[in-house]
Write a structure and sequence with these properties.
The protein is an alpha+beta fold. Helix content is about 50%, strand content about 10%. The chain has helices spanning about 25-30, 35-45, 50-55, 65, 70-80, 95-100, 110-120, 140-150, 160-165, 180-190, 195-205, 210-225, 235-245, 255-265, 270-280, 300-314; strands at about 55-60, 85-90, 125-135, 175-180. It has a 4-stranded antiparallel beta sheet with strand order 2-3-1-4, sandwiched between helices. Helix 2 (about 35-45) crosses helix 10 (about 180-190), helix 3 (about 50-55) crosses helix 10 (about 180-190) and helix 13 (about 235-245) crosses helix 15. The N and C termini lie close together (about 10 Å).
């Protein structure tokens, strides 16, 4: 089934059920500017938009991966998992971009999480890798890469998963993000890049170029532009205590959560990275009782979905 077989929705373009498991995502993405931009641009380059979206995945290596010097490890992991890097580019996660990227999920975020994210996501550039598996898969590449990446919860990560390899720091400092489904691959490329940069990525991917060397070159540039940071919790707490002690009036022996809150109340200038390291461990990151507006789907759900769509199309 292709978009040509779908009725055009009243507020946007048709989104094939082969791009997402979720009917609500079909509806919302059809009217989403970012999705529309990628979809229309890719349509001018290939007649197989669905195939492209299924064969490719997007990996975002965030600023925490840059300062922790874990980009090389991520590239090595992709090679070991038999994913070819077919596109690589640098992005800057501004306040607007952060909210655009996670627009349908950040209804879960607490005020603490939004405040902490603003401290580190804009502190350094990030690396986006467009990848394609060397092997044929029975689910979209984005779904498989998301499975291999591992969960947000550091305690739930397992050896071999990307987020376990890169470092189990906290819910917020997870170093890597993947587009969940084929529809998200298209949308997120438009969030990160303008028409010119996207065109380069699309053409490189369509030509099945190996851009691993480019990814390593960009890694070196990102490292050269940033200071390395230790993201471990205990040293960060110790540094915060030293900062608070120098300002007086606040109890440097308070528990880490109270230490942070007192420092904020009194306007003490804290190191942004230490604030994020500690805050993401001791402050609530997720609003209780809320579900995301849109979410991804695991591999088993996708297999069932593909069977249903194909049966319906006969």
């Amino acid at each position: 089934m292709t978009p040509a077989h779908l009725a055009a929705p009243p507020h946007g373009i048709p989104v094939s059920p082969l791009l997402t498991c979720h009917p609500e995502k079909q509806r919302l993405y059809g009217a989403d500017t970012y999705f529309q931009e990628s979809h229309e641009q890719l349509a001018a380059l290939t007649g197989d938009i669905i195939g492209f979206a299924h064969r490719h995945a997007v990996l975002l290596l965030k600023p925490d991966a840059v300062v922790a010097r874990r980009l090389d490890a991520a590239v090595d992991w992709l090679t070991a998992q038999r994913f070819r890097i077919v596109g690589a580019a640098v992005t800057r996660l501004t306040r607007t971009m952060i909210r655009s990227l996670w627009y349908f999920q950040w209804n879960l975020a607490t005020p603490h999480r939004r405040r902490l994210a603003a401290l580190f996501l804009e502190d350094a550039d990030a690396l986006v890798l467009l990848v394609r598996p060397d092997d044929d898969l029975d689910v979209p590449a984005s779904v498989e890469l998301t499975r291999l990446k591992g969960p947000t919860d550091p305690d739930a990560r397992r050896p071999g998963q990307l987020r376990h390899v890169l470092g189990r720091y906290s819910y917020l400092l997870n170093l890597a993000h993947t587009a969940d489904e084929p529809a998200d691959v298209l949308r997120e490329l438009a969030v990160h890049f303008d028409d010119t940069a996207r065109d380069r990525l699309f053409r490189s991917a369509l030509a099945y170029e190996d851009r691993t060397a480019c990814a390593r070159e960009l890694t070196d540039r990102l490292y050269a532009a940033t200071e390395p940071r230790d993201l471990d919790f205990d040293p960060a707490v110790a540094r915060l205590r030293d900062t608070v002690a120098r300002h007086g009036g606040a109890d440097p022996a308070a528990d880490p959560r109270r230490l942070l809150q007192t420092a904020w109340e009194r306007g003490i200038d804290l190191d942004p990275w230490d604030t994020v390291i500690v805050g993401s461990k001791v402050l609530p990151m997720r609003q209780p009782g809320r579900a995301p507006v849109l979410d991804g789907a695991d591999a088993d759900t996708w297999r069932r979905h593909l069977d249903t769509v194909r049966a319906t199309a006969k």
